[in-house]
């Protein structure tokens, strides 16, 4: 299980035998508030540049990436990079730490695992 | 592995030892075309009502759900449901089959597993 579990929500891809062959009813549906939480995180992932940023930050052996090291590999200007980073931080996917003149970004532990598990059947 | 592999892309959450401690460079970054594919699918999941539709369709014991059974549990009008269903179909997440007067929807085999695996470290 991921380190962050308090706001983990799941689509509920599996149901029990008791519900077999009964048309979908209100209580089988993902609740709207939970769906809103999940949707906001998927929205943060719905931009190719943000996914590219995440591919860099999540593959860093040092577990964090300086904002100063992102512009060049992405081919983006600093303000654009900062805009995307803010969205990923606001969505709870990246963590930001300011040290000296630079900010360093790391993946929030469990954030990606939590999102992935929301897409998969419960075991 | 999922049934659908041809367009599976991954964020590349792990890198090899050779790349340790080297600042991110262009060839470590998820390529833009792959990122665009993934982003389009996450965008389809970035709406709470679409996630609620998916929670119903993916939990159906009959592996498919009639469009006629979605409006009531979601509390949405038919055109709104159809709008969201089209987006999920266009994103390759749901499959649509017309039989008689109704359309039936099922999750494309492997689609959710493929998206989930893109978020997780490669093993």
From TrEMBL, chains A, B:
SMART domains: HTH_ARSR. It holds the Pfam family HTH_5. InterPro entries: ArsR-like_HTH (IPR011991), HTH_ArsR_DNA-bd_dom (IPR001845), HTH_MetalResp_TranReg (IPR051081), WH-like_DNA-bd_sf (IPR036388), WH_DNA-bd_sf (IPR036390). Gene3D superfamilies: Winged helix-like DNA-binding domain superfamily/Winged helix DNA-binding domain (1.10.10.10). Residues 30-123 form the HTH arsR-type domain. Keywords: DNA-binding, Transcription, Transcription regulation. It comes from the Bacteria. It comes from Glutamicibacter ardleyensis. This is Transcriptional regulator, ArsR family protein.
